[in-house]
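Memo to structure team: turn this sequence into structure tokens by end of day. - J.P.
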Amino acid sequence: CPKGKREKNRITELEERSWRSSSPTYPNWWLIHKPRSLSSSQLKHLTSQLDLQRLWTTYLQPMLVERYSGSPGNVRIRQFIVEQLKALKASWQVELDAFEDRTPHGMVSFANVVATLDPAATWRLVFACHYDSKYFPRDKHGRVFVGATDSAVPCAILLELATALDHRLRKAKEQASKITLQLLFFDGEEAFREWSETDSLYGARHLAEHMGKTPHQLGITHLQAISLFVLLDLLGAPQPSFQNHFLATSGWFERLISLEKRLHRLGLLQSHSQEQLYFHRGSLYGSVEDDHAPFLRKGVPVLHLIATPFPNVWHTLEDTEANLDRPTVENLSKILAAFLAEYLAL
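Reply from structure team:
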């Protein structure tokens, strides 16, 4: 889809408030949640548990196949994600949100993967990405679109975080923490033809609607139990730039800025320059249409981590493993691991 179709006007505080008012019973717990700050030694130990080689060979490379919604590759990758999560010792509850929807290519079967660490916990920190790839015809050389940045790398990062922090997450679950981690792997993010309200975000639209109707506890729904929705997209290209998109979650974005600087000072980031930081403070960047949108419109607080401007390889057959930057993938994994560990007090 053309970038102009996804890049919207600048988000205002008034617009954010109006989205939240559409869900008048939305709890304010997310406004007062206080994360735990990790010491320098704790950050070093935490980041040492990440394994870039495992992320790359075990999780990323198997995903670098054609996997548009409804394709055999899509089904295989979905099964792969489910199998990897079920193999972890933290005993995740892994469910499929399966449905059919009409597309420009006819009726297509979709399935989101919903993995919840502790279903009994009241609140959820959501980390999300999409696992489908955009449909492109094969070129004259037989090449297909594999969407390395879009969004195989985000999927691989989430699986690596769950694996590297498996022991910590299992311990948090055993201690019956009030907040837990939920991983969402969306199907059908990509448009089959032209990006529109009906030809895009198939999985996110369906799951947001379903969660908004499903009772949880304390008189709230599964949707209202989301304390923060962190969406990863277009990750893995060199020298990415991330902007703050929403005023309501600017405090969490500031935390990412701080964590990147701390990890840099500790010498824990590879090929990373103080003059070329990933996370940038400044005025709000225009909203970008993505899987968070159906949740945002229902009042869920969102932190949208998408490289802006988009990588040069975006929606081309060059979005491959060869054009990924390993240090960037490793550095982002460390920053996100630190953010997750502090938020959940692991």
